[in-house]
Amino acid sequence: MHNLAAVMTNNIFARIFDDQSAVNMDFPSVGQVLTCIVTALVLGILIGLVYMFTHRKTGYTQSYVFTMPMLSSLVATIILMMCLLTNGTLGLTASISLTGAFSLVRFRSVPGDPRDIAYIFFAMAMGTVCGIGFVGYACLVFLILAALLIVFNLLDFAAPKTQDMTLKVTIPENLNYNGLFDKVFEKYTTSFVLRRVKTTDFGTLFDLIYSIRVKTDADQKKFIDEIRALNGNLNVTLVLYKYDDQIYDVKQK
To answer: What's the CA gap between 107 and 100, in Å, rounded?
Structure first.
């Protein structure tokens, strides 16, 4: 506290790697504002490139990649404009800006891949750090997190040895399905549960829906072929995600 008065007179943009816990934001110049916004934009683009690299096998959408630089630069702009509005009150600026910025995550309320939400927070964090003037810290944190994400992706870190799937099997009405596919399931899966039984075609057919955990080294084609040999070569559908009771709801919503 003995140097608080002297510290508060220093410009936060000139003190990239200094402690800002007791610093009052000075009135930023046009050049400083542009530096922070451009840095946030560049970091957002780089985050988008990291996202594209780590999702090159699973796929991604162009609109989602565009979101990264837009979000990071918007968050930085909000914080910087609040700095100008409040004439440098850092505590008030950070609280108001972060409240508004994190409310943007509402558009990700639809269930999806948790990694996608993490990338949104990554872009927001970079915009926040750039917005309060710590461009150097933003670059440093980006390098650490980007390297970590790429290494985890290359090493396939924490990948499970099994894959949760949903199996839909159609059988004729005169076929007893109790234990019918157990031997095949024991060969290709580590666990299986019958989740739903549904009649179709006026009761002439049954749809059996199983939640299964398939071994990663299992041959899915052979697995389906052996199921077909037992169900009279009727329809077999293997859905590559976990069982959801709404998947086979034929009602239009």
So the answer is: 13
